[in-house]
Specification:
The complex is a heterodimer of chains A (389) and B (283). In chain A, 41% of the residues lie in helices and 13% in strands. By secondary structure, chain A is α/β, with parallel strands linked by helices. Chain B starts with a helix and ends in a 17-residue tail after the last helix. The model of chain B is unreliable at 1-5 (pLDDT under 50). The chains are: A alpha/beta (389), B alpha+beta (283). At the A-B interface, helix 7 and helix 13 of A face helix 7 and helix 8 of B.
C-alpha cells in the first residue's frame, strides 16, 4: 500500500502559491465586497436562522486544537540531511512562517532535538542595542532563533541589534536555524538586508482545499463518535464525513476556505471552527455531545459566519495598529505606542478587540487568526506594505 | 454685356440662397432635441463628477487615481459628442458653410472671450498632455495642494489647510506647474535638518536613515536617501523618503521631523537656530 503523501512540506518561499477560490465564489465575494463598499456603514442585519453556534464541547470533539507534531516532523525531515553535514554550503537555514502562528513550530522542533534556543532580548535591550544579549556564534549544538521578529522594534533605535545579529550570522560556523514571520521578513529584507544576509527561506506549502479536507478529516477522526458528517448549511451538500475519507477531497467549500485563509492552516482551522453550527432543537445538540452516535454539523458559508469585518476608513489608526502587530507578532500597549507614529493606539486597540481582530494575552496584543484575512484585506485595500506570502 | 449681368445676377442669387441655407429653417430646428441633448450631457457630466470621487474613495487605493483621472476625459468626450450632435441640428453643414461659421465664430470669440477660450483650449490640452490630473499634488505659484477636480475652464486644488484654490487652465501657457506625483500613488517627501558643523556626520546620517526606515508611513519599495550639504552656516541634512499614500505626506514629514530631532539630540548634535536657515533654497 502506498504511503500517503504528507500534509505539508517546506518549500522555498518564492514557490508559495495562495490557493485559488472556485470562480463562482470569487465572483460572489467580489460582488459582496463591492456592494458593502457603497452601503452606508450601519450595523448589518443578520438573517435569523434555526442553527445555533456550536458549543466548545462539540468544537473540541470534532475539531480539537491540532497537534503541530506533523509539521515539526516535516521540518525535521527537511533539515535532517543538512544538519548531518559537517561542512554545509550555508550554516544558516531560514524558515519563514505565515503570521498568527501561536503553536511554536520552530521552538518545539528545537526542544525535541535538544538544540540551543537563543533567548529573546527584552525591549530595553533591543532599544539599547545591547550586544551582550546576542547568542554565541561558536558551539557544538545547532543554534535556533525561533522568531527573528522578536529581535527588532520598528523604532529608530530598534534596528541596530538585529543588524548586528544578521552580520554575525553571516560568519557563523555552526548550524543555525532562524525562524521569522512573513510580515517581519519582508520588512527586515528592506530595512536590514535580511534576505541578502540569510539564505533563501523555506516556508510550509500552502494548504489547498484537498489538504484541508485531509487535515480536518484527521481531526474529526480523533473524535470518539461513530460518525460525524459536515454539511453545508445553505444547500445540504456533504463536505466531509468521519467514516468516509473519500469525501475529504476538495470541494467548493474547502477550496473557498483555503483561498480565504490564504493557505495558512491555523487560520483555516479557526474559520472551520467558527463556521460550525448545530441543529435547531436541543435534542440535536445533546445528540452531538453523546459519544458513539452519528451526528451532523452544519457549516455556514464563510460570508455568513460573522467573521471580523473592518469598519474603519483607509486612514484609520486601527490599520496602523494591525500592521504593527503583524510585523512584531505581539506587542504590549507601551511598545505599541513606541512603534506607532504619535497616534492614539489605545482607542483603536479597544475597538479592534471588540471587533474580534485582536486578542490580549499576558499583557500583550496579537492579531487573531480568525481576523487575519479581513485585516490583510483592509491593509491591502489601503495600500499598506504587506507580507512576503 | 447683358449676358455678364445675367451671370452676376445668378451668382448673387446663389450666394443669397446659400447664405440663407447656412441656418436651417426656424421651423425645421428641433429645439426639443437640442434641449434634450444639453440636459442629458449636463446630467451625465454631473453624475460622473459625483460618482467618480465616491468610487475612488471606496475602491482600492491603487485604483483611486485612475478613477479620478477618467473624469476630465469623459467630460471632454461628452461635450464633443453633444456639440457634434447639436450643430447639424441648427446649421446646414457644407464645407463652405463650415468655413463661414468657423471664421465668424473665431473672430467673435477671439475678441469677446479671448481668455475664456484660451482657458478652454488649455483645458483640452491638459486632458491630452496631463500636466495635472485629479489626485495629483501640484504647485502653481504659491498654491500647493491635491487636484480635486478638473473643469473645462479651470481646475481646483485642495491645500493642506483645506482651502480650495481655483486655477484657470490658462496658467498652463505661461506658468511652471510642479507636479509631485504625476499620476503615482506616492511622492517624495523631504525633511530638512540644519545642524552646527561640529558633529559626527556619518553617525547622524545613519541615524536619520533609520528614522525614515522605521516610519509607519514609509513605502518600502522606494529608496530612502540622506543628502548632506555643507553650508557656510552649518550642515544641511535632507532626509528623503516616500510614504505609501501621497495623502499621508504631511503626517510622514511630521513623523520624520519629530523623530529626526530626537536622534540628533541623542547624538549630541546641535541644530542651527540662526534665521539664515529660513528661506534658504536647498539644491
Amino acid at each position: 500500500m502506498d504511503k500517503p503523501e504528507p500534509l505539508s512540506a517546506f518549500k522555498p518561499l518564492s514557490e508559495y502559491k495562495v490557493p485559488n477560490a472556485p470562480a463562482r465564489e470569487t465572483v460572489r465575494r467580489k460582488f459582496v465586497r463591492f456592494w458593502r463598499a457603497f452601503r452606508p456603514t450601519e450595523a448589518e442585519e443578520s438573517r435569523p436562522d434555526d442553527l445555533k453556534t456550536a458549543g466548545d464541547e462539540i468544537l473540541d470533539e470534532v475539531a480539537a486544537r491540532p497537534d503541530v507534531g506533523p509539521l515539526v516532523d516535516i521540518l525535521q525531515s527537511n533539515l535532517t540531511e543538512w544538519l548531518g553535514t559537517t561542512q554545509p554550503k550555508r550554516w544558516v537555514t531560514t524558515i519563514v512562517l505565515p503570521p498568527c502562528e501561536e503553536f511554536g513550530i520552530v521552538e518545539k522542533w528545537a526542544e525535541q532535538n535538544g538544540f540551543e534556543v537563543a533567548p529573546e532580548p527584552t525591549a530595553e535591550e533591543i532599544l539599547r542595542a545591547d550586544l551582550r544579549c546576542l547568542p554565541e556564534m561558536k558551539g557544538d549544538r545547532p543554534l535556533v532563533i525561533p522568531r527573528l521578529e522578536r529581535w527588532v522594534l520598528r523604532h529608530h533605535h530598534g534596528l541596530q541589534l538585529v543588524r548586528e545579529l544578521l552580520m554575525r550570522l553571516d560568519s557563523i560556523e555552526r548550524h543555525c536555524v532562524v525562524g521569522c514571520n512573513s510580515w517581519a521578513w519582508l520588512w527586515l529584507s528592506e530595512v536590514a538586508d535580511a534576505s541578502a544576509r540569510l539564505p533563501a527561506p523555506l516556508t510550509p506549502a500552502a494548504f489547498d482545499g484537498e489538504r484541508l479536507g485531509r487535515w480536518f478529516h484527521e481531526l474529526a477522526d480523533r473524535s470518539e463518535k461513530n460518525d460525524v458528517v459536515f454539511r453545508r448549511s445553505d444547500n445540504g451538500q456533504r463536505i466531509l464525513s468521519k467514516t468516509d475519507a473519500a469525501t475529504a477531497s476538495a470541494n467548493d467549500y474547502l477550496k473557498s476556505l483555503a483561498a480565504v485563509s490564504r493557505g495558512i492552516p491555523w487560520v483555516a482551522w479557526q474559520l472551520w471552527r467558527q463556521s460550525m453550527r448545530t441543529g435547531p432543537d436541543d435534542a440535536s445538540e445533546a445528540k452531538l455531545a453523546e459519544k458513539n452516535s452519528r451526528s451532523c454539523i452544519w457549516m455556514k458559508p464563510l460570508a455568513d459566519v460573522g467573521l471580523p469585518k473592518f469598519s474603519g476608513n483607509s486612514h484609520s489608526v486601527a490599520l496602523f495598529v494591525l500592521q504593527a502587530l503583524l510585523l512584531h507578532g505581539r506587542l504590549s500597549l507601551d511598545l505599541l505606542r513606541k512603534v506607532l507614529p504619535s497616534l492614539d493606539a489605545f482607542a483603536a486597540l479597544h475597538r479592534l478587540e471588540e471587533e474580534g481582530f485582536v486578542v490580549r494575552e499576558e499583557g500583550e496584543y496579537r492579531v487573531r487568526s480568525a481576523g487575519y484575512p479581513a485585516a490583510r484585506e483592509s491593509l491591502l485595500h489601503a495600500g499598506f506594505p504587506l507580507d512576503a506570502l | 454685356m447683358t449676358m455678364l449681368l445675367a451671370i452676376d445676377a445668378t451668382t448673387a442669387g446663389k450666394g443669397q440662397q446659400q447664405a440663407a441655407k447656412l441656418l436651417r429653417n426656424f421651423q425645421d430646428i428641433s429645439f426639443l432635441e437640442i434641449l434634450s441633448v444639453v440636459a442629458a450631457t449636463w446630467l451625465l457630466i454631473l453624475l460622473i463628477e459625483r460618482i467618480a470621487p465616491f468610487l475612488a474613495e471606496r475602491g482600492p487605493s491603487r485604483a483611486r487615481l485612475f478613477i479620478l483621472g477618467v473624469v476630465p476625459v469623459l467630460r471632454l468626450l461628452l461635450l464633443a459628442v453633444s456639440i457634434c450632435w447639436i450643430l447639424p441640428l441648427i446649421f446646414n453643414f457644407t464645407t463652405q458653410n463650415f468655413l463661414v461659421i468657423f471664421g465668424a465664430a473665431s473672430v467673435a470669440l477671439g475678441f469677446a472671450f479671448k481668455d475664456l477660450v484660451s482657458s478652454v483650449v488649455a483645458g483640452v490640452v491638459a486632458v491630452w498632455e496631463r500636466p495635472y490630473r485629479p489626485g495629483d499634488w501640484v504647485k502653481v505659484n504659491d498654491a500647493y495642494g491635491e487636484v480635486c477636480s478638473v473643469g473645462s475652464r479651470s481646475f481646483r486644488l485642495r491645500t493642506a489647510d483645506d482651502t480650495i484654490v481655483t486655477v484657470p487652465h490658462l496658467k498652463l501657457w505661461d506658468t511652471n506647474i510642479y507636479n509631485s506625483n504625476d499620476g503615482n500613488l506616492t511622492l517624495m517627501c523631504v525633511a530638512d535638518f540644519y545642524l552646527e558643523p561640529a558633529h559626527d556626520a556619518a553617525r547622524v546620517r545613519l541615524a536619520l536613515r533609520d528614522v525614515a526606515l522605521t516610519s509607519a508611513f514609509l513605502q518600502l519599495a522606494r529608496p530612502v536617501f540622506v543628502i548632506v550639504h555643507e553650508k557656510p552656516w552649518g550642515t544641511h541634512y535632507r532626509l528623503k523618503g516616500y510614504p505609501f499614500d501621497a495623502r499621508d505626506q504631511f503626517q510622514f514629514l511630521s513623523d520624520l521631523t519629530v523623530r529626526g530631532k530626537e536622534v540628533i539630540a541623542a547624538l549630541g548634535a546641535v541644530e542651527v537656530t540662526a534665521p539664515v536657515a529660513v528661506g534658504e533654497n536647498p539644491g
